[in-house]
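Hello,

Our lab assistant flagged a job as stuck in the queue for most of the afternoon. It eventually completed. Since we weren't sure the result was trustworthy after the delay, we are filing this so someone can double-check. Below is the sequence as submitted and the structure that was eventually returned. Let us know if re-running is recommended.
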Amino acid sequence: MKTITITDEQYNALQEMQNLLNTQDNRCTANPIFVMMEIEKVPTAEDYQDGQEWYDADNCESYATIESVYESISEHLEYLNNPIKSFDEFKQALNDNFNDFDEAFGLNIYKVYYKNIETINHNVFSFFEQDVKDHENINGHNLRNKKHFDYACSLWRTPRMENLRNILMELNLSE
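-- returned structure --
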């Protein structure tokens, strides 16, 4: 048996890590490592869509609903002395063709179809689920309005990482 020398602070940190590893939910995953997944909207063809938005190319803004487009451009319509005063009149002016903003109003607003693509945020991974949740709370403002969630991946076929995790879980940390 070998002996290593560590500070009290390092010893306490190892105890905390061991406790977390042995008590956290592994989500039915062998040797889990926790990551942050992001859902990114990627433009696609109408036949492959998960949803649609309207994109204002002049203002670099997107709108989830046609109602929110109307709310945003209603001031513009007043400025142009456009007689449209209600959302129903707005829809009628477009003839229910919500792709034709340029012809109807002289605006560069386009309907965009998107597919939700899940990717791993390569900056956020940990043996500990709580680390990923803490990262989201501390750094959420930098996630560029992407939807995100934590996810458990497996360390399958990464023997050194599996070994490190097992060592942390099995260390005899009695005083």
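-- support follow-up --
The delay was a queue issue, not a problem with the job. The result is valid. Residues 8-23 form the longest helix (16 residues). The chain is about 35% helix and 25% strand.
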